[in-house]
Amino acid sequence: MRVVVAEDLFLLREGLVRLLKARGFEIVAATDSAPGLLQALLEHRPDLAIVDIRLPPTHTDDGLRAALAARERMPALPILLLSQYVEQIYARELLADQRGGVGYLLKDRVFSDDQFVDAIRTVAAGGTVMDPDVVTKLLGRRRRGEREPLFQLTERERQVLELMAEGRSNSAIANRLFISEKAVSKHSTSIFNKLELAPSDDDNRRVLAVLAYLMSVPREGRTWSRHLS
Prior knowledge:
Arc Repressor Mutant, subunit A, alpha/beta, Rossmann fold
């Protein structure tokens, strides 16, 4: 698997490169800035980008912006974000892409190389990997432990929500389930209502529904919420 790494801290960047090479990954570029990241992604077209959100030149959201800009040119590009912070707007923007192949991990919660490599392979395969702290923050306006609405979903609604979590469009969901797009829209509306996700200007109901689903999936001892497509 060909990987581009973007991290401005020298020791962390070199550590990532050494770890990934030791596990059989090909590092086609390792950069310390957003412009360097965008150039590397467009030049090498890797199988995965591992990106620190806060890169030079401004150390705000430059890394994410560069990755999303590259993804506009390469829609299937899997992106695994690394950050020291839970930054809601960035996670929501990435997940709102709806094309799958995304991850958001907190640096201080990566506890083993096996765990990290597993997350990389999940994202590269088109799945979603989210640190539970990120998910909890995004769903923070709901009461802690409030997952009961998921049990109100019908079997068909759970199937639709699962396919949403795979990043599939309404058209793709309809094809997979052999139903009409109108039926998918109807099921989606019912899902949003049962999860108490009212329309608003600042919340993407589809994103929040997927996050609620990810939190409900048994993690089998893993640290991160994940879903494989």
